[in-house]
Amino acid sequence: MIAASAGLGVIAFMKAAFGVRLVLGFAVLVAAFLAGAAFFAAAFLAGAAAFFAGAAFFAGAAFFATGAFFAGAAFLAGAFFAAAFLAGAFFAVAMSNFSIK
To answer: Which parts of the chain span the membrane according to its record (predicted)?
Structure first.
């Protein structure tokens, strides 16, 4: 009778150990899934942050380029009008010199 009960005890122990391994394995799978989900969430958020940082950079670059363009255009317009003024002044002085003689 002891042998039979010992055998049943071994079987019960093995079933319990299998159950514990099954629960631990499931817990490891859940932990791995959650870790992977957290990793992908972090990667997604990092990618989104990089995207918006790049978008902000390009928006700033476009704004700067637009400002630089208009500043350059204003400079060229000012240079053109300054040249036109100097040419007109030169012409006026030249004509006044011719008219005095």
So the answer is: 29-57, 69-95
DSSP state of 99: H
- Return the HEC string of 28-67: HHHHHHHHHHHHHHHHHHHHHHHHHHHHHHHHHHHHHHHH
Answer yes or no: is pLDDT of 3 > 60. Answer: no
Q: What's the pLDDT tens digit per position in 49-58?
A: 888 888 888 8
Which of helix, strand or coil describes residue 1?
coil
The residues spanned by each domain of the chain are 1-59, 61-100
